[in-house]
């Protein structure tokens, strides 16, 4: 659901109950979306996904795992044309 900033100020408790029961609530100012309220569980889930570059590198399998899936042949010859 969408709420204007003015509504949020006047009906904060209702908006928070809507977050708990209905999920994300979008806040607008002059018709433009400026924020979204999410429940704490969703926030933690979203925040946990972005562990950064270091975590991403840690999740890459060791390179020797790739040897198991790589074809043993040398591949095709490439015609580089005449020089």
Folded structure, characterized:
With 83 residues, this protein is an alpha+beta fold. The chain has one domain: YefM-like fold (3-Layer(aba) Sandwich). Helix content is 47%, strand content 17%. It has 5 helices and 3 strands. It has helices at residues 5-10, 12-22, 40-49, 53-58, 64-69; strands at 2-4, 25-29, 32-37.
Please outline the helices and strands:
Elements: E1 2-4, H1 5-10, H2 12-22, E2 25-29, E3 32-37, H3 40-49, H4 53-58, H5 64-69
Parallel strand pairs: 1-2
Antiparallel strand pairs: 2-3
- Percent strand: 15-25%
Order of helices and strands: EHHEEHHH
- Order of neighbouring strands in the sheet with most strands: 1-2-3
In whole angstroms, how far apart are the ends? 67 Å
The fourth-level CATH homologous superfamily is YefM-like domain
Mean pLDDT: 86
CATH class: Alpha Beta
How would you characterize the largest beta sheet? 3 strands, mixed
**Tertiary shape:** elongated
CATH architecture tag? 3-Layer(aba) Sandwich
The tally of beta strands, per DSSP, is 3
Total individual domains: 1
Organism: Nocardiopsis dassonvillei (strain ATCC 23218 / DSM 43111 / CIP 107115 / JCM 7437 / KCTC 9190 / NBRC 14626 / NCTC 10488 / NRRL B-5397 / IMRU 509) (Actinomadura dassonvillei)
Pfam family, one: PhdYeFM_antitox
Family: Belongs to the phD/YefM antitoxin family.
Function: Antitoxin component of a type II toxin-antitoxin (TA) system.
């Amino acid at each position: 659901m969408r709420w204007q900033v003015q509504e949020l100020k006047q009906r904060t408790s209702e908006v928070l109950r809507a977050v708990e029961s209905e999920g994300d609530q979008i806040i607008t100012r002059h018709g433009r979306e400026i924020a979204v309220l999410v429940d704490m569980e969703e926030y933690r889930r979203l925040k946990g996904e972005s562990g950064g570059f270091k975590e991403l590198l840690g999740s890459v399998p060791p390179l020797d795992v790739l040897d198991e899936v790589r074809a043993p042949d040398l591949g095709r010859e490439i015609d580089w044309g005449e020089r």
